[in-house]
Amino acid sequence: MHRTVMLALGSVGVGVVVLALKYLAYWITGSVALYSDALESVINIVAAGAAVVALRVSAMPADDNHPFGHSKAEYFSSVIEGVLIVIAALAILREAYHTLGAPQPLQAPAEGLALNALATLINGIWSWVLIREGRRLRSLALVADGKHLLTDVVTSLGVFAGVVLVGLTGWLILDPLLAALVALNILWSGWKLVRESVGGLMDESVPQEELDRIRAVIFEHAQGAYQAHDLRTRHAGRRTFIEFHLVVAGQMPVRDAHAICDRLEAALHETVANSTVTIHVEPEDKAKVSDVYVP
Question: Mean pLDDT score of the chain, rounded to an integer?
């Protein structure tokens, strides 16, 4: 089983444990803010399950119907997760609105906060693991899941501070107000995740920093060619697609032009992990203002 799938399955298990702790914290306190925190954990579990499916599909090799592979399946997982986050935020806002009219005193806040703190610690550690491993493995689904959990950690810390404040001041209205603030934070997180995933589905170019690095590699390893132009890039899950035109002398033997392309592909593969490189060779009369000038 691929490591990305194992990590996604681990997220399901961690999510179940965290949900149990957070719901127990809500059950013994009656805090709407803690309820909102627990509800987000339900979304974490569903999203982790979607990530497992997406990662298994994305790991499938290319076939006749999908010659470029299945790596974009991870984007669908991220979109689903973003939509679920938005739904959770709206549900929390609804609960907070109904509680504003008749806020209830909290029961056993110390015990509830202790359970919530333990759940937050578990989430914090696991989010760090997911983001680190997701970036190393170039898995958007794992990074998205890790960032979502990190948002949950920040939310939980805010809830913790708010519930402590309710206990110290006796201002019961702070509980539903805090839940509403949590919901707005979750809503913003969901929107950003959907936006990033849709960008991947729409074949956005790689970030400028990575694009500059690709240009530099072409410049350094294209000796023998005149120029490179029409550089295009895109991400598809863990894969990065790089395409450009390479201008060489019209009389250059095919073998020599092919050797330049092989050198470029090897350098790009070494610089950009999981990359697919396509080079279109052209004679010098096709030269134009280029993306990369070759010495």
Answer: 80
